[in-house]
Amino acid sequence: MNDLEERLRAALDARAATFEAGPTAWMKVQQRAGRRRWAWPVLLAALPVALVALLVPVLLNGGQDGQVTMGPPPKPAPVGEALVIDNPAEDRPMRLWYANDEGGLVVLCLTVQYAGGSSQSSCGDNAGAQAMKDYGWFEGTTQSVPPRETVLDYGGARKDVAKVTAVTKKGSRVVGAVHQPSGAPMTMKIWTVVYPATDQVTAYEFAAADGTLLSRVARSVDMPTESERGKPAGAATDLADLSVRPYSTPDRTLIWTFDGRELGMNLVRAKDLMRDMGGQPMDVELRVNGEHWFGVARQDTARMELIRKDGTVLKGVVKPDPWKIGVRLFAGERPFSGDLYLEGFTLVGYDSSGKQLWRDDHPADKPQWDPHPPIGEVVTIGEAKVWFSKVTLADGRTWDGLCRSVAGEKTTCDAFQPVAAGDAKRLPDLGKSAIGVAGSEVTQVEAVKSGTRGSVYAPSGAPLKIWVVPNRGGSERFALQNAEQDTVATVGGSAPDKCSVSPPVGQAAALGTGATLTHQDGCLIIWTDNGRFITEKHKIDDATYEFRSDFLAGYAVVKTAKVELIYDDGSRVTATLTADPWGLGLTLFSARSTKSNLDASVVGYDAAGKEIWRR
Amino acid sequence: MAPAAPTFAELFAGQYQSLVRLAGLLGADDPEDIAQEAFARLHTRRLRDDAAALGYLRATVCNLTRNRLRHLRIIRLRRPEPPEHARSSEHAVIVAEEHRELLAALDTLPRRQREALILRYWLDLSEREIADAMGVSPGSVKTHASRGLAALRGKL
């Protein structure tokens, strides 16, 4: 490069640096684009406008080489636990977490993944300020264009909130879920509500654990449909169960509806009809929404097939467009659940003589990240999805796990140790059913007392089987049988404690004596050096500790300012106090025990030196 | 397998600033307006090849800036106000003295030569990419760029 070129480069760099992007750019782009047709998946994160102003798009890594990763750490860095929630709108996991923005304000962030492999992250407004004003508040929704069958709304709440209920325009009420992310700032909670896209939510009610209504918040955000934004530009025509009609939005657009509900659209303006952005001709423009696949194809297409990964052929209905646009309309149904894009498929078009005209391959698409990637097939049991995965424990070890998710609920995984071919384990109940894992020899299951027969699932590609039996509660035993109806294992009694099978995966507090304390999903567990948990607790009263021959470790109420180990001979050891990293208001303590042959008391004092508890 | 195509938000996060600067360098009086309009237009497009999105954005910024400058010229013909490529005093202060003469010479070049030089020497684009952004043939890119450089050399 010569001197002039170098000077030119430097001069351009210097001038370029004088043009800065404004902080509200993202909002302005969304506002501009919101007035038009959306072709990219759109997430209506955090409306109203005041909230949109502070949306920050976040660059994600992930999705490399088609590998499903556990997921890049959420950005901005979470303060407390990043929840993984089952997003029914996209049938993929999403994340919700609190973080600090660049200005240090607490914000609620989310990452959503879309069918097709893309993902989008955004953070809302000052959640800390919201929490000062109200018990609960709306942050955003998965409503999108084209609309999905199910919508998930989410928001934040103060720690006093135990229940959230969405009130619809028709007057019906939808109960949501309230989550407590471990370590969230100000012990703030996150709520989610899942409802059909055909419902219109007008308000949210936030209630305390005893049912007392704490606040009611109106929801004024609703996305106008494309047909509401545009003007009809022709009569509607029916295709399979769908209806399609041209609109001017202002570009000529075909809008597809099912039972009056918009499913999707195809842009069909003349200047780039059936052409991609590079100007190259396209054979087909497919849309998939729920059980329907539809769209537009080349005008000479007379017949269409959708071929699934397993070779199943689904035939679509093909029809000329009555508006002389110059395309063929097609629509079909897919009588199966699951994500078409995740398993991969091929579209094939034929002419009227049966000759293949074109072929459009969609290789299997994997989510960019999944904190609990399935090992084998995902099984649907009632409203829950259940699958095997690996669980990384707080100390870094990996156990086998059985994960479960329900739309809008936090995904959880129960860890278990190896199960032999003729053995079984029971895990915490799944709703009103007993559930567990079983080895390969198990083919049937039955409740011993009630005689209720259950089901044994053998997910393809999974390391073990899953057994499920409807259970009315109480003590019951379950007989696992082989193909000869011989009982090979019996498990049961009471369902295992959630804490005993869900070793925490979250942040651990090192207590300085080789012990660590973890907290996740209400389980407080003290771990020793060798990684085995030695005690656990759901409800925090005054103090709990573990006293071994060589150490003392535990946690106590927040008023505790000093903890002493007092031996029977009168000698004392003062414990080291550690801050509680989860915002539970606890005092964590630990001490080396020097006189293992003596009994001792453990005593807690307040800041004034007054004894407040003794064990 | 190739890395996944960027999402709209990823494109925005990664490219918005750069496109504002491109619009500014091309002479837009409101570079942010141009860049935002380009992203809004992209959002309405259904792309078969998502990887083409960045090229589309660049081409849109070039087009919109060109249209804007044409519009401003017409306005000026009616109401002779700020001179073309007039930079604010703030810009003049910020850009170092050593670059001012060269940039002033660049601003006097014909539009296509100026675009070719900016896309080549600021964005480091290939001839093919420059051609796509400018909406011209790859062969003419070289011509515009070499003539632009020669003209600059003559003015300095």
As a whole number of angstroms, the C-alpha radius of gyration of chain A is 29 Å
Biggest sheet character of chain B: none
> Main beta sheet of chain A: strand number and arrangement?
7 strands, antiparallel
Number of strands of chain B: 0
Low-confidence stretches of chain B: 78-93
Please, what is the average pLDDT of chain A? 79
Number of helices of chain A: 7
Proportion in helices of chain B? over 70%
Model regions low in confidence, pLDDT < 50 over at least 5 residues of chain A: 35-71
Shape of chain A: globular
Indicate the multimeric state: heterodimer
Give the helix/strand layout.
The complex is a heterodimer of chains A (615) and B (156).
Chain A: H1 3-16, H2 25-34, H3 49-52, E1 83-87, E2 92-100, E3 106-113, E4 119-126, H4 127-133, E5 136-141, E6 150-157, E7 163-168, E8 173-175, E9 177-179, E10 189-196, E11 201-207, E12 213-218, H5 226-229, E13 231-232, E14 237-239, E15 242-248, E16 252-258, E17 261-267, E18 284-289, E19 292-297, E20 303-308, E21 313-320, E22 328-333, H6 340-343, E23 345-350, E24 356-362, E25 375-381, E26 384-392, E27 398-406, E28 412-416, E29 424-430, E30 433-438, E31 444-447, E32 455-457, E33 465-470, E34 476-481, E35 487-493, H7 498-501, E36 508-510, E37 516-520, E38 523-527, E39 533-537, E40 543-547, E41 551-556, E42 562-567, E43 572-574, E44 576-579, E45 587-592, E46 600-605, E47 611-614
Antiparallel strand pairs in A: 1-2, 2-3, 3-4, 5-6, 6-10, 7-8, 7-11, 9-10, 11-12, 13-15, 14-15, 15-16, 16-17, 18-19, 19-22, 20-21, 20-23, 21-22, 23-24, 25-26, 26-27, 27-28, 29-30, 30-33, 31-34, 32-33, 34-35, 36-37, 37-38, 38-39, 40-41, 41-45, 42-43, 42-46, 44-45, 46-47
Chain B: H1 8-25, H2 31-43, H3 53-78, H4 89-94, H5 97-107, H6 111-121, H7 127-134, H8 138-155
